[in-house]
Amino acid sequence: MSRYFTEDHEWIDVDGEVGTVGITEYAQEQLGDIVFVEVPEEGKELAKGDDAAVVESVKAASDIYAPVSGTVLEGNSDLADEPALVNTSPEEDGWFFKLTLSDAEELEGLMDESAYQAFVSKL
Amino acid sequence: MSINQSGWKPAIGDTQAPAAATYTGNRALMLEEALIFEIGDTRTTGVDFSPSPLQGRGPGRGEVGASAGDENAPLPTLSPEGERANRLGGLERTASFGLPGLSEPETVRHYTRLSRQNYAIDLGLFPLGSCTMKHNPRLNEKVARMPGFADLHPLQTMDTVQGALGVIHELAHWLKTLTGMPAVAMSPKAGAHGELCGLLAIRSALEARGDARSVILVPESAHGTNPATAAFCGYGVENIPATAEGRVDLAALTARLGPDVAAVMITNPNTCGLFERDMKAISDVVHAAGALVYCDGANFNAIVGRVRPGDLGIDAMHINLHKTFSTPHGGGGPGSGPVVFSAALAPFAPLPFVEKTDAGYVLVEEETAGEHHAQNFGRMTAFHGQMGMFTRALAYIMSHGADGLRQVAEDAVLNANYILRSLDGVLDAPFGASGPCMHEALFADDGLAEGFSTLDIAKGLIDEGYHPMTVYFPLVVHGAMLVEPTETESKAALDQFIGALRSVAERAKAGDAALKSAPHFAPRRRLDETLAARKPVLVWKEPVVAEAAE
Hints:
Chain A is an alpha+beta fold and about 120 residues long.
């Protein structure tokens, strides 16, 4: 399983055809306390870059984009009751949704862990 | 001699001794007030009934009612079951349904106590940037309360409301003259409603020429209502970047224009407190691309009497009467947002509007618009707009006159610049080098101690007795603090505010731990905004009374 990152601070873990998407530790730190998360419904078709989910902090709402194209398998239902998971465990328990990748080649345009860390350090 | 029988011998004790907690939780005039549901009990609910139609019957009751003085009419009778029974036929409620149970004096005290915990423009400087919280002159109120205005009904016949129509017409004339625009829609009820009115007119104009377009361009620093309005009208929204000095990037805007762009929405002066110097050039390139220019007029206070937006190529602009023209705002409302139109959009302006004819004022509505206003896009409201605000705004305009309004803008800008420059070296002003600010001064959170933020400064200002400034807006500045003093503050009032803000900012830079837990002197301490958003308590729940131990 390998993890990729976008410049919009999403991460995606890819296991075969299935990707799990969340936001990075850096992103949750910038957003502050998360108070509400809206995840996509099962079966939703997403193109790379589409608005896929919404995350609200006390002050602002932000869109989460689909890092790659695919069909949503499930949203993380735990986030409805406990949006704070995005703060406490952004890169594990606080995942947003899983999708079936429709074009694995899209992953090639994403960053790996070290490239993302280098990207963040310049922000 | 007679001895001091009363025993009253004033003597100052130790005035520095620490205070003891009070039994009531009150601190002298700072009264701790419970929720309304926790006061009184359900047996004391007060109800006001209209005068009974039976009132006035019977001997000696001749004052009220149509059958006054009819001594032969029967007295109201009690139900046959007697004094304690009701006439609800068994339909009476048997359980509480959760209304508060207060008597009249309890109700009056409750709201009076709460009102004392409020902050208002009548209490002190209200520096909310972009909101223009200016003094509401009492003359406006006096005029609005004249019976001829206060007791109007919107369905009165035209010949009985000629004076009111005259007020609308006269105010419309002033708004058109001050903006240099040929038409105005008076009915929109606030700023965002005005934006909707402007964009609907733009949409109508584009569709009328068979050129419906799909995108509205909005600067990054725009009021959030701008993109929201564009989206509500069915347009896609795209951002225009700003230059390093905080103004619209004309080159980037020009590059984005194309046959899909319907309009550009620009706030001028913008929300960074800066005048868009390139506004005429912006309008020219937008028009050359076949699009139209909407101006968010929320900041008109800074330029009224000095700049006519019509001269800058604006096609539509709303005017917040509750900002620039001093009508009540923020709790005292309602708002009012007339929209002025260029010649290109005037035919599409909504109904109704007031016209002056030889026979007096007439209200042009659907039945009377006829061919001379056949392209109107419809109607924004049921009636004529916020009449009570029209009388207040016209009273303000006529009591100031053209020269007075010009001075309003000049003093608003002078006051904001006085604050901006007085905080040099204390707070970072990201656009301080972009020339004088307009009516509001913008600061950023650079240079605060580790762990301290704009929020701490805002909370510290509460302890200093001020409503905080606008914080974290505009979004283009990190930790933004947007201060708008308005023109009605004296130098003494400004100096005290500057001193307070300077003191709080210096504490934030020095890392004063006490500031992290401010406010200390407000009725409530710092609230847990995260918990409030995650687990909001939206209804009062009756506390569960623990059963007494057996």
